[in-house]
Design goal:
This protein has 623 residues and is α/β, with parallel strands linked by helices. It contains 22 helices and 10 strands. A hairpin with a 2-residue loop joins β9 and β10.
């Protein structure tokens, strides 16, 4: 049953302290305190959540207890022909053939922790300590044949994060700058929530997320970018969290969410995470040097150094533990900075490095003994065997649940509407495409103006047709490659989260720009160039010319998609696009007869699209 929505006037708009107090006083179907019995003993009792049907309320959260036992990750760093990054080492060792010298690097070593529902856990440590590696391993975002994992991570007694509803907030905000916060969340809800939900239900979830994260004041403000200012850094980060919160996750992973924020915005953001955890979620985040006020908001801490833990447990027990090891927290010192410094290795001089290595080794050895006492064997052998079949059943359910996103046609409609809105809110981009067609038509039309019908004129007409078939398509090819390398970041995030598929994404780009670019640009170029060049003024032949130019446009768009699919960044994608264009220019048959090309490269003519377009013009006797 859906919880009645609170009136908008009840909640303050953006003041975090008032918002948090209101949430704490509001009744909920989920325990919102760590004192609740279900949170103290998560393995004995779990609340049922409506998220099993449709996640319509953020207050209904299925409690998930996370148990980490002896987690280790090792990467094989030996050189291989399959890894280009290892080529320098491969040539250095001169082991081109035969068995390679084994070389392993330990990324994580014997990490154990107990993360109860309703808790906020911080993973801290110096640079290179393994914070993000641990977070990505828990979220199962690290996959490579060179990685070897040991130990286990249990979610409610089941191995694998896929058995629990979870979400991952990346360190960088991947948002469309021309959309408002509310529009961003609405489009994400339309893609993310199951097909069984109605539009009104999705709108209610969006409004609840806006109020939950204190985004009401900026809900109708565009996200913005470095060129066009919009939301602040803290508002963008909360919007990114809101996108993931729409699925009502029980476990929320965040990779350094305070990066790039000022002290006040970082403090407010962590308070928001704390309020989300108090609803019953298990929130796990990496964080870099939190201020002292943020330190007090954490429930659990995992302090790493070179992949090994020196402490993993409740925040309140951290200072007593280090004090028992001879490192008493000085007064008026930020605890996070002090403990990170104690667990760090100073390699500025050999003396300091030897001293700090010995200190860190003592801390790691002491914690190994303490960890064996705190975190004994998680399950017995019989319990592990019993969980095996249960894990398979849960995994199959998780896979089916992962597929419960928007249908193909809803994705197509939502992505088309979003792309159309992004397009018309970029008037400079629309003007650039239109102006390019007009100027290219005028310039090429002036060069090939009113061509004659004699022998020299026929040769000139062939050059004009090649220009129409090749140059116009090339310019649109490069323009689309540039735009697609920007938009593909959003698609990659949504596709990795199971919200958007490839075919709806590609089709939506063409449907959204059909009347703003795909039809006007070839038509304007055709009108200007066809009549200025002096081709036969016949309506049928003109529209055939336009149809072939339109086909050339769509082939260029498809080629751009293929280039960006191969390489995500613009330098690499544009290099592939130029290579493809160069090959089709040489082998299209306009400069050399295809039957005179050497037979072992003659096949190139079949993968060039200009030859088809040029032959279409030739067969139709347009010149």
């Amino acid at each position: 049953m859906e919880r009645p929505a609170s009136p908008e006037g009840v909640r303050p708009q953006s003041h975090y302290s008032a918002l948090e107090a209101e949430k704490m006083d509001r009744p909920s179907s989920v325990a919102t305190s760590a004192d609740h019995p279900a949170l103290r003993e998560p393995t004995t009792q779990y609340r049922l959540s409506i998220s099993g049907a449709t996640p319509l309320s953020l207050d209904d959260v299925q409690a998930v207890d996370v148990q980490i036992r002896d987690l280790s990750v090792v990467v094989d760093t030996s050189p291989s022909w399959l890894e280009p990054a290892t080529y320098p080492q491969l040539f250095k060792e001169r082991r081109f053939f035969g068995p390679k010298k084994p070389s392993d690097k330990t990324l994580l070593h014997d990490v154990s922790a107990s993360l109860a529902p309703g808790s906020l856990t911080a993973i801290i440590g110096g640079s290179g300590s393994g914070k993000t590696t641990l977070l990505n391993t828990l979220a199962e975002r690290m996959s490579s044949p060179r990685l070897t994992e040991a130990g286990e991570v249990m979610f409610n007694g089941v191995k694998g994060v896929q058995s629990a509803r979870h979400a991952y907030v990346m360190q960088q905000d991947v948002l469309l700058p021309s959309l408002t916060v509310r529009e961003t969340l609405r489009y994400s809800a339309d893609l993310r929530l199951p097909a069984s939900t109605t539009a009104d239900e999705r709108r209610k979830v969006v409004e609840e997320v806006i109020l939950e994260l204190g985004l009401k004041e900026c809900a109708d403000t565009r996200v913005g970018s470095t060129q066009h200012k919009g939301c602040s850094g803290g508002e963008k980060r909360r919007t990114s969290i809101g996108v993931q919160l729409l699925a009502n996750p029980s476990v929320l992973f965040l990779d350094e969410p305070t990066t790039g924020l000022d002290a006040t915005s970082a403090f407010q953001l962590v308070k928001t995470l704390k309020s989300l955890a108090q609803k019953g979620r298990t929130v796990i985040t990496t964080i870099h040097q939190p201020r002292s006020e943020i330190w007090d908001l954490f429930d659990n801490l995992i302090i790493l150094t070179k992949g090994s833990p020196v402490y993993s447990g409740p925040m309140k027990e951290c200072a007593p533990w280090f004090e028992s090891q001879g490192f008493k927290l000085p007064p008026f010192v930020n605890p996070a900075e002090y403990f990170i410094d104690v667990a760090a290795i100073d390699n500025r001089t050999p003396e300091l490095e030897a001293e700090t290595v010995e200190r860190v080794s003592r801390l790691k050895a002491a914690w190994v003994e303490e960890s064996c006492t705190r975190y004994g064997p998680n399950t017995t052998a019989s319990e592990t065997e019993a969980n095996a079949g249960h894990h398979k059943q849960k995994s199959s359910k998780a896979k089916r649940k992962k597929k419960q996103h928007a249908t193909f046609f809803r994705q197509l409609a939502v992505l088309t509407d979003r792309t159309f809105k992004v397009t018309y809110r970029d008037p400079l981009g629309m003007l650039a495409a239109t102006l390019e067609a007009v100027l290219m038509g005028i310039v090429t039309g002036y060069i090939f103006y009113n061509l004659g019908s004699d022998q020299s004129g026929i040769r000139s007409r062939q050059g004009a047709l090649y220009t129409a078939a090749g140059l116009q398509g090339y310019l649109m090819l490069m323009f689309e490659v540039y735009r697609l390398t920007i938009d593909i970041l959003t698609f990659d995030r949504e596709h990795s989260e199971g919200c958007a598929d490839v075919v709806p994404f590609l089709l939506s780009r063409r449907f959204a720009r059909m009347f703003t670019e795909d039809l006007p640009v070839p038509f304007l170029f055709s009108v200007i160039f066809f009549f200025m060049a002096g081709f036969e003024r016949d309506a049928e032949k003109f529209f055939i010319f336009f149809a072939v130019t339109l086909l050339n446009h769509y082939v260029a768009m498809t080629c751009a998609m293929s280039c960006v699919a191969a390489v995500r960044h613009f330098p690499g994608a544009s290099l592939i696009a130029n290579l493809v264009y160069t090959l089709q220019s040489m082998a299209c048959g306009m400069f050399i007869q295809s039957n005179t090309i050497p037979v072992y490269v003659r096949w190139l003519k079949w993968i060039t699209y200009t030859v088809r377009i040029a032959l279409s013009f030739d067969i139709l006797d347009l010149f």
